[in-house]
Amino acid sequence: xxxxxxxxxxxxxxxxxxxxxxxxxxxxxxxxxxxxxxxxxxxxxxxxxxxxxxxxxxxxxxxxxxxxxxxxxxxxxxxxxxxxxxxxxxxxxxxxxxxxxxxxxxxxxxxxxxxxxxxxxxxxxxxxxxxxxxxxxxxxxxxxxxxxxxxxxxxxxxxxxxxxxxxxxxxxxxxxxxxxxxxxxxxxxxxxxxxxxxxxxxxxxxxxxxxxxxxxxxxxxxxxxxxxxxxxxxxxxxxxxxxxxxxxxxxxxxxxxxxxxxxxxxxxxxxxxxxxxxxxxxxxxxxxxxxxxxxxxxxxxxxxxxxxxxxxxxxxxxxxxxxxxxxxxxxxxxxxxxxxxxxxxxxxxxxxxxxxxxxxxxxxxxxxxxxxxxxxxxxxxx
Amino acid sequence: xxxxxxxxxxxxxxxxxxxxxxxxxxxxxxxxxxxxxxxxxxxxxxxxxxxxxxxxxxxxxxxxxxxxxxxxxxxxxxxxxxxxxxxxxxxxxxxxxxxxxxxxxxxxxxxxxxxxxxxxxxxxxxxxxxxxxxxxxxxxxxxxxxxxxxxxxxxxxxxxxxxxxxxxxxxxxxxxxxxxxxxxxxxxxxxxxxxxxxxxxxxxxxxxxxxxxxxxxxxxxxxxxxxxxxxxxxxxxxxxxxxxxxxxxxxxxxxxxxxxxxxxxxxxxxxxxxxxxxxxxxxxxxxxxxxxxxxxxxxxxxxxxxxxxxxxxxxxxxxxxxxxxxxxxxxxxxxxxxxxxxxxxxxxxxxxxxxxxxxxxxxxxxxxxxxxxxxxxxxxxx
Amino acid sequence: xxxxxxxxxxxxxxxxxxxxxxxxxxxxxxxxxxxxxxxxxxxxxxxxxxxxxxxxxxxxxxxxxxxxxxxxxxxxxxxxxxxxxxxxxxxxxxxxxxxxxxxxxxxxxxxxxxxxxxxxxxxxxxxxxxxxxxxxxxxxxxxxxxxxxxxxxxxxxxxxxxxxxxxxxxxxxxxxxxxxxxxxxxxxxxxxxxxxxxxxxxxxxxxxxxxxxxxxxxxxxxxxxxxxxxxxxxxxxxxxxxxxxxxxxxxxxxxxxxxxxxxxxxxxxxxxxxxxxxxxxxxxxxxxxxxxxxxxxxxxxxxxxxxxxxxxxxxxxxxxxxxxxxxxxxxxxxxxxxxxxxxxxxxxxxxxxxxxxxxxxxxxxxxxxxxxxxxxxxxxxx
Amino acid sequence: xxxxxxxxxxxxxxxxxxxxxxxxxxxxxxxxxxxxxxxxxxxxxxxxxxxxxxxxxxxxxxxxxxxxxxxxxxxxxxxxxxxxxxxxxxxxxxxxxxxxxxxxxxxxxxxxxxxxxxxxxxxxxxxxxxxxxxxxxxxxxxxxxxxxxxxxxxxxxxxxxxxxxxxxxxxxxxxxxxxxxxxxxxxxxxxxxxxxxxxxxxxxxxxxxxxxxxxxxxxxxxxxxxxxxxxxxxxxxxxxxxxxxxxxxxxxxxxxxxxxxxxxxxxxxxxxxxxxxxxxxxxxxxxxxxxxxxxxxxxxxxxxxxxxxxxxxxxxxxxxxxxxxxxxxxxxxxxxxxxxxxxxxxxxxxxxxxxxxxxxxxxxxxxxxxxxxxxxxxxxxx
Lengths: 382, 382, 382, 382
What we know:
Four copies of one chain form a homotetramer. Chain A is of the alpha/beta class. The first copy, chain A, has a single domain (15-368), classed as TIM Barrel, CATH 3.20.20.70. In chain A, 35% of the residues lie in helices and 15% in strands. Chain A is built from 15 helices and 17 strands. In chain A, the strands form four sheets. In chain A, strands 6-7-8-9-11-12-13-14 form an eight-stranded parallel beta barrel, surrounded by five helices. In chain A, helix 6 links the parallel strand 8 and strand 9.
């Protein structure tokens, strides 16, 4: 019997498995430019806070905007379902671990109140901040009028897997190209991970793409559904789509790696792999200012049908200012993210993010064997 | 001295090492068709409960059949060796861990009673359920008359490694082609893992193949014998054999991945790798209705010569209904398996199982380092 | 600057990373032939007990010979340095862990007594057993006359790394070809791991080769020296050398994989990778009859200059009879090794060890994450 | 849509993943030559102690020089910032773990005193020892006059990532070629990891290169910045650069692998991968004579902006004499490093370090699963 050619599976990579190779020249960190442009909007810092209720509320959105970055307010969470959102957040935070998923399911089953959508957006705008908001595809058509009337600056349409084409009998799919044409603010869409899905969505006219699905262990999408793609590979592939689209259209659509980054090292790897921006959740959930007060949960946690992920205690480690700009005495990479990004770029000899995409990323499994930690190479110098 | 070309070993993959890439379009889960056909029998749900005494008895076989799936009753276990099978199950369940293998060896050394074989089958049939039963090759000839007389619907001939050709002096081997011709009900045979063994068995006229050998850590076949093949590779290879056989014969013989799936994610990966159905053991052993009452043991555990595997406490987590169809507040992928399968298919943009085989499976090692769990990417949205 | 072609490193494999694929036919275990020939000597069982003081003494050598296998008595250990060897063994066994290396260094620094060499060999021969003895290259010339006078049957010349050529000023190297010509009994030499070293040694006229260096974690050669080669690759490479030598000379020199096998699965993998025999240490150290009484230590542990490895408590698990032939209620692969070998051969459809070398060995990393053990696939049937 | 060719990432390797294959001949360890030449200076032992305050002070520099190796005194640490350096070291050693980074940041923010630079160098020279000192690029110009006036023998210019070209507005970069021409003592520069950076630096006229960046788990450069390159790959690449430069210039510039070696095995692997020398930190921090008294911290730990790494308790295990030359009863590879190097070279059949570079290094993941440690292959003999 002739043996067939067996199917080869592609190897994909996550943050823990790669490292950035330093460059042949070095650049002083203070000479690096890390700006991110989304449509006409310029962000001084290419970092975006996740549309998660433990991470972003009106206050943190305002503070982050003033620091030069962006926070996305989720319009289908406690902020728009409950007038007294802090009370509800407290209920979540104090729920016993064994009941928390059921409690989340109950809390999130409440309807969205359009007047609260308007109210939250207006509060952010009134403070002079840039306002970005997030909705799922199913609710987009209904909420867009409220969102634009309240003068939000950026619309994020987000679901676990988003594609330009969707087959459904139960409701008319959202047509992205129509959406992008019908409103004047930039539309960011996600999440997606593959070259072709990313390219197709860019062709619809979006202003940015969120990259990543089920990247980590706390989000259980991969455990529940088997679906996933590690973040480094997802970012590399979507960056190729962005470059291909730029070549065909002359329009540069930034890609934003979303999820799975637990420290500055992971964040730097995302940029070196091709990201123009990053979306962080758990790192910001650790801020003193975070609405989750040291707790964190995903937006697919409360799904009534197929809950994925749970509430996690991440603790509170520092202020937003320290997390983003230092100074710090923390040595695990969770503070001074901007300093880390500029230093890594300096080591790679690049002066802006697009040049950073040319840095070499290598496969370099990390050694995490507990007992060996102290033994390994203190050989780093200033 | 000229160095020779060193032997290259083929890399194989298990569930933990792969992920399913989402598709370029998405489909609403409620528009997916997940039917499985075995011969003329149609199952609404492509899931089969293992022929293990802790998983399947007469009652669970009846309940599962009514839910649209299949449970296989093992005809060489406590159900056919003991009239009072529940008493014996209790003895197994309450045995101290240090003595359990010896107790299992003693219990399973009793002879099969043909009248009990008939009685169990008839009980299932009387309830209007589809009745599938399992025997080992050595006992097949002897038991087939009883099985057909009692009007079982499906015969499963199962051993750790099954091939179309067997060399033995001590007994006349079972000739599969003769068996398949001699009886009118569909014959499922297994287990097998390789392309050529699978193809040969299909040519004998079987109606289905069980795929997999020693896939997990609890089954110690690999530790005792060194023999094994991870389930993703086994499924990919046998799927190629099925497709080759379909091309040569026009007959589509479903392959059923058996063993090693611990959650919905693993199950979805089996389908994406090419399975037409899956056989689950430990997940069903956790059902409230399971005869093992939270305990689970393999059928090769009690081997008097070379016991492999032991009794394991899996606990009881939910009803069969919850495990299969939800609703659930469990987020680890052990409940609402059907919902998970339909959602994963939706993310891959496919509408039936055969189309699901075209989804891309990638190598994506999971990060399981304990201390990192909470840190990793909560970035999943609805 | 033109980037050079970076050096590619060869990937090597150990037992934990591979599995044996079952065959396209199956054979009844009782129809397999597992004989091993060393020179003119036929062993019914292709298993050899290590020349280690915790494993082999006069009594166990006699018992194993009667069971059809071989035990090698180390002629540079406590048996030939001390008349009252049992007293010395007790001292080792009862030494506190913190002092044991220093105590071993002191005990093993005693000189070899030639009269004890003769006495131990004669005791084994008197019992009608096959007597194999082991010496290091440096002591071979001096001890060979005693060994041959006492009528040992097999001479093993063993050091961590053995080659056909050795550069030294301090002593005249042992010339293997002269040794092999000068004595009439078969000479087994080792250890070696590479194709070319193995081929060169075979050309010197030896009757067998021990394969492997620093294969495991307990032997710290790799930690101390960085030198090593995983056992599957070492076996595959030396098997190629054996086959090449057989082709050039017509003489079939068996290779014996030595070390790193912790259960029947590992042992079966060694055979499938090309071994004609295996040498086991720690498994036999667990026998009720073992001189180490549940303790085990390597022969390079007491090196006064560079001790590698330490005394380890392995415990006592069963009799030699159970370990080799069962019956057993142990399910972890440490008992009934002969049954396991025959069963694995049956699953691969082969009838003798040389045919077993054609079985496919695949790379299949084992999943050992503690918490997942019970969850993984109980799907093994008889 | 045509799928693009996805980007392939290069696989890199660290010490834990490789092993050295023994050779086809063996050499007596006492016949190996392990000399290292840096410029005109000959070291009997190719090992250099790190420029870290817990490892090297005036006393240890003198002792190590007398033993034939080199210790590098850091000129920007406690020795040159504080007259009473021992008092400051005590403060560091006794700081509570939670405050230690902040305390280090405060202590290291003091200015360098040039009179102390001179005093420390002169103390070493007065004892008749070879004196090597280390500075960062930013302080080199200022300190070189003091260093040369005090008659240091070797200058090390060291930062985390060093390149021949640096972009900065804030200060005039250090021009290496000018530095090398302007002073008469050998200049060692580092750290670097890539082929091209290494080659460029060699062309500037340096006498040696330090290889490695963030190689280990204790140094958190990789966690904070994502930047890194495992030591085996870094060494292989820089060795290629050294050989290319030797071919183009006729000048042989030794490369010194710096960091990540935790035992003799790692050290031997560095040499086999192409290193001419190694720089060790944590192993020497364990010496009875170490100024850190069992504690160890990196020089980038106290960075005020982005601290990386922390103070670690390594304990005290033996004297410098034992660590370097034995004798020892320690079996974990942390003592008798010189004996280990000579033995490994003997196993590989090589007589000097440059010949050792031709040994084959293979990829051979270590098995570190805790529970398996004792089980694995005691099969090592003398």
